[in-house]
Amino acid sequence: MPKILRFFLILRIIAFHYAPIINFKTSNPPNPTPPMIRFVNAKINIGLNVVAKRQDGYHDLETVFYPVGLECGLPHQPQPFDDILEVGYQPGDISGCRFQFLGRPIDCPPKKNLVVKAASLFLRHYNEDFDDLGNYGMFEISLDKHLPDGAGLGGGSADAAFTLQLLNETVGKKYDDRQLAEMALKLGADCPFFLYNKPCFAEGIGEVLNPINLSLEGYTLLIVKPDIHVSTADAFAGIVPKKPEFDLRFLPYLPIEDWKNKVVNDFESTVFAKHPELGILKQSLYDGGAIYASMTGSGSAIYALFDSADLARKERTRLESTYQAIWLFGL
């Protein structure tokens, strides 16, 4: 039977549905199971060095990805931060995928949405590798968006990676981590990281990952997202690739009190020049008692680590009159 892929789009006020439809007759449908739900966390970059310009036009980077928000949504950390992803299916005569997006508006057309792209990519691979996709009927994916876009926190990449994971679990884990990582890399350089979701030293364009023995347990993290958009072009403007003075692979051996003068984000030099408010915010966090503060990714979110939860709460209170997007939680 030929495998035919076609698409349809339905717009609604609070959500849109975009479904790739694969025409198969339903035979031996699996028993419906309750939808799987995951809290989708973010990441911060601890240090970010631009080390070389590649022939393909991209840049080689070195950074440490550290997952944050892993326990948000639990009783002891109820503050909304993580996205909430739900994946299920309804057996029937028509197979495909229906999407619902709630919460924070996503400012991109459906075909460019990373959750839509991840689901389409997964179903296309599954359709080529197995012959039972039609038995699942209509996959249903719902995303309640909380993580901010354009912050350097990797929210969109995390949504894509978790979509791949949950779809894979829904069909019985037909793909291993390596195969999922290959799919994830087609969606974004930092997408594979969220499949592992553990501290990693990353190089290349961010896709070469090596676990790193780093724990920030016991510290309090404050994240502030000013209402500033930083384009990738602006972030790279004026950047001169160079070998970093400090090798981030040795970060676990450097006391956190010494990070301030050794662990740098190269994008701060260009981004702070264009948006001075971000540099002022970072310095104010140090003035408020942070032991380390930095921009994450190419911005515009600034984060700070505190060894005193009381000081962190005091800083949050001070900043709440200026910034609406502020999150505080223990690591």
Topology:
Elements lengths: L4 E7 L4 E7 L13 E5 L1 E12 L5 E10 L14 E8 L5 E8 L10 H16 L8 E8 L9 H16 L6 H9 L7 H4 L3 E4 L4 E4 L8 E5 L7 H5 L22 H4 L4 H8 L1 H12 L4 E4 L6 E5 L2 H11 L6 E5 L1
Parallel strand pairs: 7-8
Antiparallel strand pairs: 1-2, 3-6, 4-5, 5-9, 6-8, 9-10, 11-13, 11-14, 12-13
Task: State the gist of this model.
This protein is an alpha+beta fold. It is built from nine helices and 14 strands.
Descriptors:
331 residues, alpha+beta, 4-stranded mixed sheet, 14 strands, globular
Structural write-up:
The structure is a single chain. The protein contains nine helices and 14 strands. It has helices at residues 114-129, 155-170, 177-185, 193-196, 232-236, 259-262, 267-274, 276-287, 309-319, and strands at residues 5-11, 16-22, 36-40, 42-53, 59-68, 83-90, 96-103, 138-145, 200-203, 208-211, 220-224, 292-295, 302-306, 326-330. With 331 residues, the protein is α+β, with helices and mostly antiparallel strands. The strands form four sheets. Strands 3-6-8-7 form a four-stranded mixed β-sheet, covered by helices on one side. A four-stranded antiparallel β-sheet has the order 4-5-9-10, with no helix packed on it. Strands 12-13-11-14 form a four-stranded antiparallel β-sheet, with helices on one face.
**Biggest pleated-sheet summary:** 4 strands, mixed
**Beta-strand percentage range:** 25-35%
Q: Output the strand order for the largest sheet.
A: 3-6-8-7
Our measurement of the CA-to-CA distance between the termini, rounded to an integer number of angstroms, reads 52 Å
C-alpha Rg (nearest Å): 21 Å
**How helical, in percent, are the residues?**
25-40%
Given as residue ranges, the uncertain stretches (5+ residues, pLDDT < 50) are 1-26
